[in-house]
Amino acid sequence: MPRPDPQHTPGRNSPWEWLRRLHGPLAPVEIAPGVRVWLTLTYEATAQALCSPTLSNDPRHWEEFHSGRVGEAGLLPLTAPRDNALTSDGETHRRRRAPLVDGLAKLTARGMGQEITAITDRLIDSFIERGHADLIGEFATRLPILVLSRAYGLSDGNGLRLAELASRFWDCDPATADPAAAELEAFFAELTARARRWPGEDLASWMITHPSRLSETEIRHGLMSYIAAGNDLTAHLIANTLVELLADPAPERGPVLSHVDVGRAVRRACRVRPPLRVWPARYAIQDTDIAGVRIGAGEGVAIGFEPAHEDPALAHHVEDAEHTLLTWGAGTHTCPARSLAWEITEQGVTAVLRRLREPRLALRVEELRPRPGPLLNAFDALPVRFVPGRPASATRALGPGRPARPRPRRRGKGRAWLTRWWCH
């Protein structure tokens, strides 16, 4: 499968277009060394794969899962079957999803806008006087988790530690991803037990008292999946939107940034640089047909978000039409936190454009280093420069509690995620 490329642009030279011409709506690829799947390459195939009742989210239907190669490739923390809504189907999925949907509805009703604004201002205050910053490490990866920390009733220090652990899932390095998964599960086991003893106005407490009567394991795995998916993808949607806006070095574009339609900019980033390039797979529970391609029972269908949004068949749609975006999935497994993720992204991007004077990338886009692993459209860092400014408020700690001690992040060696083909 093609590797993430900072210079990637849609068009005839795109590797996805080359694969479409060679294979049609789905291509047989290795999503990681030795892990074979069908990859959706068109909008129609992707939408159909997301909604098909003959494809399951439970990896126990997947032949590759039982081969051991998924674990060797570092995909296990993302794809392992857990007692949550993400990897279940049917009535079990509905029962596990309902508490999270209802809990998020309570947060929305309570209103998160002022909370998000306060967090964005404090984050920007921490670097605005310097005139330079890493908008991923110092802003984008911190904003979503600090918002989610409020929803979980956590200190900011604990939230930042959880974000660092969840981020390791996406690098697909078993040396770091597997221990991170174990530590996350232990944390949420303790959080669930504490919420049961001392309930509060938070997601864990609401899930415990929900009429669905989830088990301890279901609550733990549900909370864990939301952190694992929600923080990194929202963070890199913020960052990728900023890359698209700041990539033009022309000095005259400075005043234009203050009048940007941020919603449209986010929609464009979803289309041309979606944070999730490919989701590992859905799994055929029987022989089935996706966009005219026969999929055998037990085979995996990887969801190609990036190739779907580049499909030339979408050219007749309005470029920023939200109804054509598949970024948050489709069908019964559509992301339940879409509205909150969108609000965090829009407010985060708006705050950067509002607070930073004459922001510009410190490196060319092609010099930005992609995150390791085959799944994300994400960068390790987003260095920017701007005219130094003044904090909006007096310097304050990021939140209650003692911040977790930073731990050095272990990196696996870069892998050559080469395109390979297999035949039936």
From TrEMBL:
InterPro entries for this protein: Cyt_P450_B (IPR002397), Cyt_P450_CS (IPR017972), Cyt_P450_sf (IPR036396)
SUPFAM superfamilies named among the record's database cross-references: Cytochrome P450
Similarity comment text for this entry: Belongs to the cytochrome P450 family.
Originating species: Marinactinospora thermotolerans DSM 45154
GO molecular function annotations of the record: heme binding; iron ion binding; monooxygenase activity; oxidoreductase activity, acting on paired donors, with incorporation or reduction of molecular oxygen
Protein name: Cytochrome P450
Region (Disordered): 393-412
Record Gene3D superfamilies: Cytochrome P450
PANTHER family linked: CYTOCHROME P450 YJIB-RELATED (PTHR46696:SF1), P450, PUTATIVE (EUROFUNG)-RELATED (PTHR46696)
